[in-house]
Specification:
alpha/beta; eight-stranded parallel β-barrel; 27 helices; globular
């Protein structure tokens, strides 16, 4: 009451006294750059590479390495809206001024396909890509098929699509499960990769449909070169691994984690594998003594350094199955990605997790539960690098900023050793490596460690050694902490060091990238509907044809050989295969052979046909690839064990058809021994094609092969048929193969002469000047 007027008077006096000062402050604020007013850093405090440590690393880098920055995980919100477009544009401008090459963004399956199966909404991500394009930056895209919110560094919650979670309410087995029966809704189990249990589709089909829609909707950005890399999500956190250490389930560093193979689909796969080796008791479940998420490995029976059961016969078998199941999943998803994106001017990328704790122990326990069979005696990253190389996929790895001395001794961690091993495995396969930091750090020590690791990159081959190239580095992550002026200055200095002081990437160091599959010779036409179509050339040379020698036509996703397909194909036009699986009946071996010869009549006559083509959908492409991989795996394993003759004629026949060898007549018309001889020669042909004839001879020079060679030498010239002669003496690989065939001797016993003629035509067709 009575004090109110005095209080207002005091306030008016203070306001009058500070009036001039306040106005001068407002005038000064108008002169402050807009970025500073918005909370963004400036480049005023950044000097050229004046720090001796950065200068030394910059001088040691062999070439310009592009630097990208991860955008926030929720740049597109869970409601499928672009968060703050104006703030994003200012942040992108700041990155461009700092000479950052581009950004990385997660495209969440749970956001785009949230409303229902095949109901995709790309509007928000298109708006995001336009902002990036207008800022003059490039983008690395991550197709994230996992949940956000259960891993280290997840700052938001983005679940899987609602309709998937509703499906899981009826069938919880579609999620990974640990020994205690706890479900993990972060990623679909590898066991449903090929089982149509998620609203009528398998997991791989769902991922492939999503990727096909992405390619169609984002064609303008792909063609414009805005999207430089497409990282395909292969598991939890987008990494090729099992969800063995989920924070949401209570895991804490450096726990060993848990094996995740207890859903009914993976258990069925495990039981099948155990029955195949005659040990059905091994298929009842995973190791019973592997502990729980946060156990110390020495307190478990399975991971003990001394006499741990991971070294037992069962332990080695289980870890082999567990890791091979992971590779099968990666192979299936990358096959789908390669089929969908084939021909795109970009690079496919797969990510490997940096499980560095317990790396210095004999057992590498945390890596084993994650699916990497990597111990002191087994290199678990070479098979992964070989898988990526098969699909032409670059390898992305993390932990680039970590140093051993920063890790606790009791965790037996070695991130530097792990980085070295993974990079060497990738480079040995001729892969490019793109790298990241695992944790958000802004100190100079972390930046110096990244520069140190990057200095091992080379742009050219060194003698017989392949290039050891680091194609890019992606910094985690664009955040308010990064935009702090001190941290920003350190980051800008780091970017300039990675660029070796150059303002832009020289054209000489740029790599022309295009997704290319390595299995067949083909090209891709852009889809006009939801499916991506590929064009498979009918070619009788060294390229392999996909097999139609399967148990039923439905294995190829549709009717492969209709009555009018032959007439249409003979006219030289592209014939689209319908996906209808109606009226499908089982094929006999003779019918398979007849269907195969109906598709490839000219190949049967020994004449190359390179112009006409046969159009397959990606579903049929995947099915044919599965037939080939399965047949190849069985036959090559048997050959390595010198028990090729023990395989059935049907298994050998599928291998011959999958390899593209034209054989007239049905299966029952060719003796089993002749099929064994033919398959042996095909294996040698493939070995020569891969420049490894010597290795192939060593692998297959077992007791049975030696006996056959001795028998052939005793027969001498009376064998009958004549071994083909090399037309081109300059082709060393042809000569090496024919030398191997000549050494074996028993190929001349093949009764059906057309087999030799057909095999010879493969070599002749490779010579461009030979038109016979």
């Amino acid at each position: 009451g009575p004090r109110a007027p005095a209080w207002r008077a005091v306030r008016r006096v203070r306001a009058a006294a500070n009036g001039a000062e306040s106005e001068s402050e407002r005038e000064g604020a108008n002169n402050v750059p807009a970025d500073v007013r918005a909370g963004l850093p400036t480049l005023d405090g950044v000097q050229e590479l004046d720090q001796p440590q950065h200068a030394r690393h910059a001088a040691g880098l062999p070439h310009y390495i592009p630097v990208y920055t991860m955008l926030p995980l929720d740049s597109v919100t869970v409601f499928n809206n672009l968060g703050d477009p104006e703030l994003l544009r200012r942040q992108l401008d700041a990155l461009r001024n700092a000479q950052v090459d581009g950004v990385m963004c997660d495209i969440w399956w749970g956001i785009v396909e949230a409303e229902g199966p095949k109901k995709y909404d790309w509007a928000a991500y298109k708006a995001l890509l336009r902002c990036v394009q207008e800022a003059g930056l490039k983008m690395q895209v991550v197709l994230s098929f996992h949940m956000c919110g259960g891993n280290v560094g997840d700052g938001c919650y983005i679940p899987l699509p609602r309709w998937v979670l509703e499906c899981a309410e009826q069938n919880e087995e579609i999620f990974f499960t640990n020994r205690s029966g706890e479900r993990n809704p972060e990623y679909l189990s590898f066991g449903v990769d090929d089982k149509p249990v998620v609203m009528g589709r398998s997991a791989v089909e769902i991922y492939a449909d999503f990727m096909a829609s992405f390619r169609r909707e984002m064609a303008e950005f792909l063609d414009a070169g805005v999207i430089t890399e497409i990282e395909v999500g292969l598991g939890p956190a987008g990494e090729l691994r099992y969800p063995s250490y989920p924070e949401k389930a209570g895991w804490r560093f450096p726990g060993v984690g848990e094996f995740q193979c207890y859903d009914k689909y993976l258990l069925a796969d495990l039981a099948e594998a155990a029955n195949a080796v005659g040990r059905p008791e091994w298929g009842l479940g995973g190791p019973h003594d592997a502990g729980e998420y946060n156990n110390h490995p020495e307190f478990t029976g399975f991971f003990r350094s001394n006499c741990g059961s991971y070294q037992s016969e069962y332990g080695r078998w289980f870890l082999t199955w567990y890791s091979s199941r992971l590779l099968r999943h990666g192979d299936a998803v990358l096959s789908a990605a390669a089929a969908v994106f084939d021909g795109c001017p970009t690079t496919l990328v797969g990510k490997v997790a940096g499980v560095h704790w317990w790396y210095n122990s004999p057992h590498h326990a945390a890596e084993l539960t994650a699916g990497y069979y990597n111990t002191r005696d087994v290199d678990g990253y070479i098979p992964i690098a070989e898988l990526f190389a098969e699909h032409g996929c670059a390898l992305n790895f993390t932990c680039f900023e970590m140093r051993n001395l920063e890790q606790p001794d009791w965790a037996q961690s070695s991130p530097e050793g792990l980085v070295h091993q993974v990079l060497e495995a990738a480079w040995a396969q001729g892969l490019e490596a793109s790298c990241e930091n695992a944790l958000a750090r802004y100190d100079r020590g972390a930046f110096d460690q990244i520069l140190h690791n990057a200095s091992r990159s080379t742009i050219d081959s060194d003698g017989d050694r392949l290039p050891r190239r680091i194609s890019s580095f992606t910094f985690l992550r664009l955040s308010p902490e990064l935009l702090d002026q001190h941290n920003w200055d350190e980051f800008v200095r780091f970017v300039r060091a990675m660029h070796t002081g150059l303002d832009c990437q020289p054209d000489a160091t740029k790599v022309t990238r295009r997704v290319m599959r390595s299995r067949e010779l083909h090209e891709v036409t852009l889809p006009t509907d939801w499916a991506a179509h590929t064009v498979l050339h009918r070619h009788s040379g060294w390229g392999r044809q996909s097999s139609v020698l399967c148990s039923s036509a439905s294995d190829l996703g549709g009717t492969m050989c209709s009555g009018d397909s032959d007439d249409e194909s003979s006219s030289g036009e592209e014939v689209e295969v319908e996906e209808s699986a109606s009226d499908v009946e089982e094929w006999s071996s003779a019918e398979c052979s007849a269907a195969y010869m109906e598709i490839l009549p000219d190949v049967a006559a020994g004449l190359p046909r390179t112009r006409e083509s046969f159009v397959w959908t990606w579903r049929q492409r995947l099915a044919a690839d599965r037939v080939w991989r399965s047949a190849r795996r069985v036959v090559r394993t048997a050959a390595a064990r010198n028990c090729l003759a023990k395989l059935s004629s049907q298994q050998l026949w599928e291998y011959v058809g999958a390899a593209g060898i034209p054989v007239t007549g049905g299966l029952e018309l060719i003796p089993h021994k002749q099929l064994v001889d033919l398959v042996s020669s095909i294996i040698l042909q493939e070995a020569a094609q891969e420049r490894s004839v010597a290795a192939a001879q060593a692998a297959y020079a077992g007791e049975a092969v030696l006996k056959r060679r001795n028998g052939a030498a005793a027969k001498g010239a009376g064998a009958g048929a004549e071994v083909p002669v090399v037309d081109d003496p300059q082709d060393a690989r042809k000569e090496a193969f024919f030398d191997a065939v000549r050494d074996r001797g028993d190929l001349t016993e093949v009764g059906a002469g057309n087999l030799l003629v057909s095999l010879s035509s493969f070599f002749k067709a490779r010579n461009a000047d030979d038109k016979d």
